[in-house]
Write a structure and sequence with these properties.
This protein folds into two domains: 181 residues, P-loop containing nucleotide triphosphate hydrolases (Rossmann fold, 3-Layer(aba) Sandwich); 66 residues, no CATH class. Helices cover 36% and strands 21% of the residues. The protein is built from ten helices and ten strands. The strands form two sheets. A six-stranded mixed β-sheet has the order 6-7-8-3-9-10, with helices on both faces. The protein is globular, with a radius of gyration of 19 Å.
Length: 279
């Protein structure tokens, strides 16, 4: 295998001859995570490697229980790594970075049912030191971005599942993150709502130039959304493969999913995930 192929496999595009490779926005270097020590300990992640460029959309797929959520918690600074490191712009992540926001899978738990939409969205802004006028501006802007300007005073339980997840996304956007981590955010939604939110996310990513790391079990979703897909092998999880998704920057639920390249990528990723579950 050539040096160029090796660089691509590990998520590090080879620099042109005579040039210095740019520092990636987000980098995972030989990251390992274990819970406990000795015979009772459990190794979840082993020497994981990949990179995410600024403005890139990267999906992470792999067998169930492989450690994808644990990985996101390490990237967000919520969990310490056992060895190796995760970095933003070359700086090691040791605590939740101010540039980053995390959207969870279960919106029914991430939203406070006793707070209105307004207060849920404002929640992460309370400790930022922002003026009230700026907080109100961000509230209105983020709700407008997800198409929910008219639900300001409603409670989460008064909204549909798709609308609740839009509120969760609006709350993350109000924080103005440069990097957005998402842990299967659309998993519990119906197919049409899921498609609508996928397109919304692609629009927001393009307009706001946010770097996105998105965990999903849905292979079709990973192909539709991403620029590259990181395929993880079985526990302890390691980087099995990194696949480019050359489907262009403009995507359409019907046209993109009908392309032969889409079907080929879906088959390739699914085969890789299934093989990774076995070894």
């Amino acid at each position: 295998m050539t040096n160029e192929n090796l660089a691509t496999l590990h998520g590090r595009p080879a620099a042109a001859q005579g040039q210095t490779a740019a520092i990636p926005r987000l980098a995972v270097r030989d990251l390992s995570k274990s819970y406990g020590t000795g015979p009772a300990g459990k190794e979840v992640i082993r020497e994981l490697n990949f990179e995410v460029a600024a403005g890139e959309f990267v999906c992470i797929v792999g067998p169930s229980g492989v450690g994808k959520t644990t990985l996101l918690k390490c990237l967000s600074g919520l969990l310490p790594v056992t060895s190796g490191e995760a970095l933003i712009d070359g700086v090691r992540i040791c605590e939740p970075p101010k540039e980053m926001a995390l959207v969870f899978q279960d919106y029914t738990r991430s939203l406070m049912p006793w707070l209105t939409v307004e207060k849920n969205v404002l929640l992460p802004l309370r400790e930022t030191g922002l003026r009230r006028s700026e907080m109100k501006h961000r509230l209105q802007e983020s709700l407008a971005q997800v198409g929910l300007s008219d639900v300001l005073h409603k409670y989460p339980w008064q909204l549909s599942g798709g609308m609740q997840q839009r509120v969760a996304i609006a709350r993350a956007l109000a924080y103005r993150p440069e990097i957005l981590l998402m842990d299967e955010p659309f998993a519990s939604l119906d197919a049409q709502t899921r498609f609508d939110l996928e397109d919304l996310l692609l629009t927001l990513r393009r307009e706001l130039n946010i770097t996105v790391v998105f965990v999903t079990h849905d292979i079709d979703e990973s192909v539709y959304l991403s620029d590259r897909i990181v395929v993880l092998g079985s526990a302890p999880c390691r980087t099995r493969e990194i696949v480019d998704v050359p489907l262009g920057s403009t995507r359409n639920q019907i046209e993109t999913r009908s392309r032969a390249e889409f079907s080929e990528l879906r088959t390739h990723i699914l085969t890789s995930v299934k093989a990774g579950a076995l070894n």
